[in-house]
Write a structure and sequence with these properties.
The chain is α+β, with helices and mostly antiparallel strands. Helix content is 45%, strand content 26%. The chain has a six-stranded antiparallel barrel with strand order 1-10-13-12-11-14. Strands 2-9-7-4 form a four-stranded antiparallel β-sheet, with no helix packed on it. Helix 2 packs antiparallel against helix 5. The longest helix has 34 residues. The protein is rod-shaped, with a radius of gyration of 44 Å. It starts with a helix and ends with a strand.
Length: 314
């Protein structure tokens, strides 16, 4: 007899513990609004409402004529800036260097002749045949040819070295600026086509082909399975037994088996019972929002706005 009494008491306690009234809640979806940061006419809408898309699938494309022209212009400016930099580093053209070299060769030949004439006039001056004026004229011609050789040698060396370091630095800065402009133009063009950032359901499409879409306005609304959650308000008397990661069972009308989930969030702030939630005990005024997450495959079977009943496995 005592054994039967104990068994009855244990059964009563177990039923009371697991038989707590389920809490009323609803399914909530955290949507992903896909938009372009640029404006334009909706040229291609690649998806329809209700379709399933994978990450990277095309969603929509806006008209991009202006952006394509800007990219082509930026590409040409980069090519021009790169050519200017190469020219600054390389120095003068080979034909120009050859012309300077030819002038230097002529100056060397002229210096040889003027040096011989100077030596001849020096000998004649010592023998008394040549005048001082002839000697001075030969010396001046020799010195002039020497200066000419020195000048052309310096000019040739400068031509082979290329532009000054500050000019090369300026050309490099100009090239970097044009490359940055090209990167911006390519980014602008890429933003005219938007792909799915995540795998999920196309919950809605907000524009139709041919519509004008303002910058930043969402065109496609996605609902990834991992963003589907059940929300329930738990009284302050029960929330203390809940912890993130605890298991929960979510019951949906028309489905025999409950959906298994886990607590992913417990609000740190209390709030008054929403008017759509009716508590059997009017003393329980304060409630805490609790969110329940599911496996993606399980979440695909739930729909935002769907009413649910929730029981926690304490």
């Amino acid at each position: 007899m005592p054994l039967l009494v104990c068994a009855a008491l244990l059964a009563f306690q177990g039923c009371r513990r697991s038989g707590e009234a389920p809490l009323q809640g609803y399914v909530e979806g955290e949507f992903v609004y896909v938009a372009s940061p640029l404006q334009g006419e909706l040229e291609v809408l690649s998806v329809e409402r209700g379709a399933q898309v994978k990450k990277g699938d095309p969603l929509f494309t806006l008209e991009s004529g202006s952006e394509r022209a800007s990219r082509e212009e930026a590409e040409r400016k980069v090519a021009q800036a790169r050519s200017n930099l190469d020219d600054a580093r390389r120095g003068q053209r080979p034909s120009e260097i050859q012309a300077i070299q030819a002038q230097l060769d002529q100056a060397d030949a002229a210096l040889v002749l003027s040096q011989r004439e100077f030596e001849r006039q020096d000998k004649l001056r010592k023998s008394g045949v040549s005048s001082a004026q002839d000697m001075d004229r030969a010396r001046a011609a020799r010195d002039q040819d020497r200066q000419r050789v020195s000048q052309l040698s310096a000019t040739l060396e400068t031509a082979q070295l290329g532009s000054r370091s500050d000019q090369i630095a300026a050309a490099e800065a100009a090239l970097r600026a044009q490359e940055a402009a090209l990167a911006r133009a390519e980014w602008d063009l890429s933003q005219k086509r938007q792909d799915a950032p995540q795998t999920g359901l196309v919950f809605d499409t907000l524009y139709r082909q041919g519509d004008w879409v303002a910058a930043g306005k969402p065109v496609v609304v996605l609902l990834p399975p991992k963003n589907i959650k059940a929300r329930v308000f738990v009284s302050q008397g029960r929330v203390g037994r809940l912890h993130p990661g605890d298991r929960a069972r979510v019951f949906v009308d028309g489905v025999a088996e409950p959906f298994a989930g886990r607590i992913s969030y417990i609000s740190p702030k209390s709030e008054y019972t929403p008017p759509v939630i009716y508590s059997q005990d009017m003393r329980e005024k304060l409630v805490f929002l609790v969110e329940i997450s599911f496996d993606p495959r399980t979440a695909e079977r739930l729909h935002p706005g769907q009413p649910v009943d929730v029981q926690f496995d304490f």
